Amino acid sequence: MLRFLARRLIVALLVVATVMTLAFILTRLSGDLAVSIAGPSATQADVDAVRKAYGLDRPLLIQFFDWAGRAVTGDLGESYFFKTRVATLIGERMPVTLTLGLTGLVIALAVSLPLGILAAVRENTAFDRIVQVVALLGQAMPSFWLGLLLMILFGLKLGWLPISGTDSWESYIMPGVVLAFSAIPALTRLTRAGMIQAMGSDYIRTARAKGLSRASILLKHALRNAAIPVVAIAAVQLGFMLGGSIVIEQVFALHGVGFLAWESIAKNDFPVVQSVVLVLAAIYVLLTMLADLMNAVLDPRLRGA
Amino acid sequence: MSVTATDPGSSVESSPRSSRGPRRGWRSAGTWFGAVIVGIAAFCAIFAPLLVPHDPFAQDLGKRLLVPFWMDGSNPEHLLGTDQLGRDYLSRLIWGCRISMLIGVTVSFVSGLIGITLGVIGGFLGGRADDAVLFAITTRLSLPVVLVALAVVGLLGSSMTLLVITLGLLLWDRFAVVSRATTMQVRNLDYVAAAWCAGCSRFRILTREVLPNIASHLVVVATLEIALAILLEAALSFLGLGVPPPLPSWGLMIAEAKDYMFFSPWIIMIPGVALFVLVLGINLLGDGLRDQFGARTAP
Amino acid sequence: MTALLEVDRLQVQFGATAAVRGASLSVARGETHCLVGESGCGKSVTALAVMNLLARGGERKAERLAFEGEDLLKLSERGMARLRGNAMAMIFQEPMTSLNPAYTVGSQMTEVLRRHKGASQRAATDRAADLLARVGITAPGLRLGQFPHQLSGGLRQRVMIAMALMCEPKLLIADEPTTALDVTVQAQILRLLAGLQRDLGLGLLLITHDLGIVARVATRVSVMYAGEVVESAPTAELFAQPRHPYTQGLLRCVPVPGKIQRDQPLGAIRGTVPRVGHGFAGCAFRERCDFADETCQRTIPRHSAGATHDYLCRLPA
Ligand SMILES: Nc1ncnc2c1ncn2[C@@H]1O[C@H](COP(=O)(O)OP(=O)(O)OP(=O)(O)O)[C@@H](O)[C@H]1O
Ligand SMILES: [Mg+2]
Q1: How confident is the model at residue B2 (pLDDT cuts 50, 70, 90)?
Q2: Does the N-terminal peptide bond of residue B246 adopt cis geometry, omega within 30 degrees of 0?
Q3: What is the three-class DSSP state of C232?
Q4: Residues of chain C contacting B9 with CB distance shorter than 8 Å
Q5: Beta-carbon pairs below 8 A across chains B and C
Q6: Which chain residues have CB less than 5 Å from ligand 2, an ion?
């Protein structure tokens, strides 16, 4: 178990290091950064000044290790546009994105767990088929379009929910639902498949032979085993949701990390762009490790002797 | 002393019940629905220049925001109305289908090339090579796709080619995972082992034994990837960093129509529904193909 | 006095396959009833049908299916759940997979007692430890805290037996409790079951392949063939005067009762079990039988050879 954890940690660190390199390369793709930072009306002297001020005159490798070295200590550099520390900037915007992502995950789980369980229990009935069709529909739904539709319906026609901003918890409902939509099909299918497999297993027959109640058979004995793949996918999906929230934040004008990234891309603010990529990737890596740990809690066989 | 007759089968109904599961593969209506949608979309995409009733790029500011045929005051010349610049909506929709399909297929091709190469190498060679492939997949999954694609297009300027290459570089993970797993399975089969013994070269085993055997799995992944690429392109175009205007991508059409949607909701309904139905159709077809191949490969 | 378990002309179908075709048997209080027959003849399905634990797609029908006089066919799933694990318990053929991998042995054992008898966790744990010791597990306290994957197959089967005994059932169905285990453990577990049956006075329906064990522990034997009980008799009588040609074939490899060689495979009878599907009539054994004639294609009568001995064959007693 310890060896497994150590290996896992090393791979995670390597992934983060690779992402760092990629993020760095990504932002240098556009050619001379100094030119784009200085702006279209800048003279050659201005550009040179910018290049010197930002340390862009140094060799690329030095620039990379300088950035990477600081990033490891939590110093992500300074934003060219906002003129503040990138870490502070991301820290300010992160709560919105995290709230949005967690809202999405909670809604997704609240929908897909019961649906998946019921579909499994009623395998091959009309209900089961309807659930599968709904999952297919959800998979095909473009999230930004769904967001706009909800805005028209609940924001304008019914006037129930605010259509933008982050003033109240209600502002998170629509974006959360839209975000959840992307995760619901996979989670529902996995819950259903896991439950069907568990319900057909010998230990469920044992549980029935013991005369346990239906609730105990379903929720204690079957779900515990069916949940193992679901937890892994839920973590992955939360990671995808945080990454994908850039679209939703744009639609609902939520000023989270995704919105920040979008603004920074438009403004060639490359320290922010590369940092957001890095932070989101690091969060994803953390989430998958967390999922592994949770699975070890759920499945004693993974804990080792 | 009793003599009782046992007559097995008397009280059991004699009609053998056919399997009650849902219909699968080509027997399912969903698969056919998907195939028809994909067929129509492919037709529209290929023959778009012949099908469009008007020039999809021609603006006519005198005829802005005409309503579609089912609403009062529609213009029979423009069946689906016109957009905010007076361009024929039906023509733009058909042209947009061409763009969606083009992007979906090319992205799937590029990502397939990358993913299958990596997956087959990992699955076939195993060991260090496989570790490296797994690491590449893990790293790729940790990258936020939309953000990275936006950043590339945002920093390098938007063009179709760049979009295809970027998405292709980002969407190969499923190809790699599936081809790696199936290659491993095929590798362990008896006849492949026999080919090893017969002294066939590795390359020959790969091209003659492994690739044909994993092809059906890859067709399924390819359909699902096409759907994903189409959705992503629409999202990027919606954010203004996908297909460059004035090309009529459905995502871009929705973005441009957004300002008018509260007054005339149909304007975002039309491209949105088209996008939704196309992606649904491709997914249905993909699911159907999977069931079909699954049924055939099962003993 | 009614029998503990009565099964009359039980039929089970899986789609078009008839797994059990009119099997009858009864288990009296305090007796060990052995059900023997070759693989695939429907022994497990019969046991599962009694417990109403058939896999999906299995449909059961019977003239009568009663436990202590109570009609199990009319009982709701809820009513059945009250009996299962409580008055009637079952041990499965697959010890390796029959325990839930996610919970400790202790938690899986105690939940039965808590459910049926409303016992406290403490009392249930005490009883579980008691029973584990009784089925020959050393250090029961330690085992209670362990997970199934930490136990060997023999230990898991013992845990299953102890778990089945938690509520002092009146009927215990043990489905080949030893086939998955190695030879030394097999004998131990069967001896254990026989001992428990004697001590607790429960009715035991023991499904087994091992005629040596049958000869030693059974009060009564039912022989199954292709979904039917072809012969049923008290043990001594069956071994002394088998009536059905199939039973005779089975016993041919066993020299004398009491001096049987252990672990002998079931008799070498020529041919294989036929596929009996819909509309099959007559004796399913006729293709392999030395005494078969054309009347074997018709419905076969059940003959009695004494008050407690009957068999399914055209041959007269
Ligand atoms: N879940 C099921 N679905 C379909 N058919 C089944 C199922 N379970 C059992 N059968 C059929 O019922 C028949 C009897 O099976 P059963 O398990 O009762 O045999 P058995 O006598 O217990 O054999 P063994 O000694 O190998 O345990 C088998 O031939 C099998 O084809
Ligand atoms: Mg069996």
Answers
A1: very low
A2: yes
A3: strand
A4: 11, 18, 21, 278-281
A5: 55
A6: C 44, 93
* Residue C53 in contact with ligand 1 by CB distance below 6 A: no
Asked if the C-beta of C149 comes within 8 angstroms of chain A's C-beta atoms, the answer is yes
Q: How far is the CA of C18 from the centre of ligand 2 (A)?
A: 15
DSSP state of A112: H
Quick one: three-class SS letters along B144-189? CHHHHHHHHHHHHCCCHHHHHHHHHHHCCHHHHHHHHHHHHHHHCC
CA distance A252 to B48: 34
* Residue C174 phi, psi (nearest 5): -115, 110
Starting from the CA of residue C13, give the closest ligand. Answer: 1
Q: Is the pLDDT of residue B8 over 70?
A: no
User: Is B3 touching C (CB cutoff 8 A)?
Assistant: yes
Q: Nearest-CA neighbor of A85 among A269, A289, A294? A: A269
Domain edges within chain B? 70-297
Establish if B21 touches chain C: CB-CB under 8 angstroms. Answer: no
* Nearest of A186, A167, A183 to residue A239 by alpha carbon: A183
Right CATH number for B70-297 from 1.20.1250.20, 3.40.50.720, 3.40.50.1820, 1.10.3720.10? Answer: 1.10.3720.10
Q: What is the dihedral of CA A246, A252, A253, A256, to 10 degrees?
A: -40
Domain ranges across chain C: 3-87+170-312, 98-168
Q: Closest Cα partner for B31 from B285, B290, B267?
A: B285
Q: Is the pLDDT of residue B280 over 90?
A: yes
CA-to-CA dists, residue A112 to A119, A294, B283, angstroms: 10, 19, 20
- Ligand lying closest to the C-alpha of residue C23: 1
CATH architecture of A93-266: Orthogonal Bundle (1.10)
Say which residue, A73 or C238, is predicted with more confidence.
C238
Question: Which among C21, C299, C304 has CB closest to B5?
Answer: C299
Q: Quick check: CB of C44 below 6 Å from ligand 1?
A: yes
Give me the percent of chain B exceeding a pLDDT of 70. Answer: 86
Provide the mean pLDDT of chain B.
80
Report pLDDT digits (tens) over B81-102.
777 777 788 888 888 899 999 9
Q: Nearest CA to CA, how far is C300 from chain A (Å)?
A: 35
Q: How far is CA C247 from CA A69, B107, C37, in A?
A: 83, 70, 9
Which residue on chain B is closest to A271 by alpha carbon? Answer: B151
Task: Give the per-residue pLDDT at A237.
Answer: 87
Torsion of CA C154, C155, C157, C163, to 10 degrees: 170
Buried b (16+ CB within 10 A) or exposed e, B82-106: bbeebbbbbbbbbbbbbbbbbbbbb
pLDDT value at B3 more than 70: no
Rounded mean pLDDT, A8-15: 88
Pair B238, B128: CB distance under 8 Å: no
The CATH number fitting domain C3-87+170-312, selected from 3.50.50.60, 3.40.50.300, 3.40.630.30, 3.20.20.60:
3.40.50.300
DSSP states of A36-69 as a string?
Answer: HHH-TT--HHHHHHHHHHTTTTS-HHHHHHHHHH
Closest CA to B139 of A20, C49, C273: A20
Give mean pLDDT, residues A27-39: 70
Closest CA–CA distance from residue C188 to any residue of chain A (Å): 23
Nearest to B12 among C11, C228, C300 (CB): C11
pLDDT above 90: percentage of residues in chain B: 23
Band (A273; pLDDT cuts 50, 70, 90):
confident
Looking at the predicted structure, is the pLDDT value of residue B113 above 90?
A: yes
pLDDT tens-digit readout, C176-235: 887 766 777 777 777 778 887 888 888 999 998 778 888 888 899 999 988 889 999 999
